[in-house]
């Protein structure tokens, strides 16, 4: 499927506000709302748009500590470790990386006590040989789709 300039403009608009009415997007882009509806449906059908999300303000729900944790892992255990992390609700994102760490995860937790618990209990996994924790102090720019 080809994505043209109008499709990209529609995607940009929806990434800022996934609930924006098609009529309003159409007005902004100077096309009909039927055009917007058809293109969004086509992009959903073709897998360009996979799903719409709610952006959570984690501080408003009592989650104040965001950390990136680098993991060195035994290569033979990599898939088992990733599978376990994917099922952990505290883990927001998992990346396979090059460089010093095999895996980089992002967690959002209530406080430092909960982070300590996470490190001692949740990352006490066979095959994890080393970890490094980096706490975020301030976000200067966030992903518009996930607010992470």
Chain-wise SSE layout:
Blueprint (H helix, E strand, L loop, with lengths): L4 H12 L5 H8 L3 H13 L19 E9 L4 H9 L4 E6 L6 E7 L2 H11 L5 E8 L13
Antiparallel strand pairs: 1-3, 1-4, 2-3
**Sheet with the most strands: spatial strand order:** 2-3-1-4
What is the CATH H-level superfamily of the largest domain? Answer: Lrp/AsnC effector binding domain/regulation of amino acid metabolism (RAM) domain
Rg estimate, integer Å: 20 Å
Helix content: 25-40%
CATH class type of the largest domain: Alpha Beta
Structural class: alpha+beta
Write down how many β-strands occur, each being a DSSP E stretch of 2 or more residues. Answer: 4
Unreliable residue stretches: none
Structure report:
The protein is an alpha+beta fold and 148 residues long. It has two domains: 5-45, Arc Repressor Mutant, subunit A (Orthogonal Bundle), CATH 1.10.10.10; 58-135, Alpha-Beta Plaits (2-Layer Sandwich), CATH 3.30.70.920. It is 36% helix and 20% strand. It is built from five helices and four strands. Strands 2-3-1-4 form a four-stranded antiparallel β-sheet. Helix 2 packs across helix 3. The longest helix is centred in the first third of the chain and has 13 residues, at 33-45. It is elongated and about 55 Å long. The mean pLDDT is 91.
């Amino acid at each position: 499927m080809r994505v043209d300039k109008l499709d990209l403009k529609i995607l940009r608009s929806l990434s800022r506000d996934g609930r924006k009415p098609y009529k309003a997007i159409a007005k902004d882009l100077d096309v009909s709302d039927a055009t917007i509806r058809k293109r969004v449906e086509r992009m959903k059908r073709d897998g360009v748009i996979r799903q719409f999300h709610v952006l959570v303000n984690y501080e408003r729900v009592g989650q104040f500590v965001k950390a990136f944790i680098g993991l060195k892992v035994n290569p033979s255990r990599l898939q088992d470790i990733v599978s376990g992390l994917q099922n952990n609700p505290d883990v927001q994102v998992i990346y396979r990386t090059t460089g010093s760490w095999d895996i980089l995860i992002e967690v959002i937790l209530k406080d430092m006590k909960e982070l300590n618990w996470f490190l001692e209990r949740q990352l006490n996994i066979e095959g994890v040989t080393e970890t490094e924790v980096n706490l975020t102090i301030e976000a200067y720019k966030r992903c518009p789709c996930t607010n992470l």
